[in-house]
Amino acid sequence: MLKAAFLWLSEQPSIFRFVRKNWVARKLASRFVAGETIDEAIAALRDLICHHEEQYYVHDSPEISDAEFDAIFGRVKERGTPFGSAPGRFEDGKLNDWNGGRGVYFKSPDGHVLELMTVAQ
To answer: Cβ contacts of residue 26 below 8 Å, gap of 6+?
Structure first.
């Protein structure tokens, strides 16, 4: 619903003019829009891809959406798999909230410790 409202607002010429002229509105809108030009949008996308590649390939800790986290974590709990809040405490039955997201550790069926981490809000 919120997405639909933002899309509708973005199509209104008066709102567009207001956001472009008002510094506070412009700053707020920049949290939801990649850029005003194609070059800014490409740069923002490139930064986002680099961030997620580092999370995945360097830290072995990809970030997922809250909905994906809830679905996967639900299956972990359904199976009775022990889980925990840190790599060394993957059976304490708690989640962590590091960096503003949610995280959990558990072992895969073959014994590897896996981590789920949501995108920081």
So the answer is: 19, 20
How far apart are alpha carbons 117 and 61 in whole angstroms?
Answer: 7
Can you give the three-state secondary structure of the chain, one letter per residue? CHHHHHHHHHCCHHHHHHHHHCHHHHHHHCCCCCCCCHHHHHHHHHHHHHHHHHHHHHCCCCEECHHHHHHHHHHHHHCCCCEECECCECCCCCCECHHHCCEEEEECCCCCEEEEEECCC
pLDDT in tens, the chain (121 residues): 566 776 777 778 887 788 778 878 777 776 666 666 777 777 877 887 888 788 777 776 677 888 888 998 999 999 899 999 998 888 899 999 887 888 999 988 888 888 888 876 4
**Residues found in the chain:** 121
Name the pTM for this structure: 0.54
CA–CA gap between residue 75 and residue 77 (Å, rounded): 5
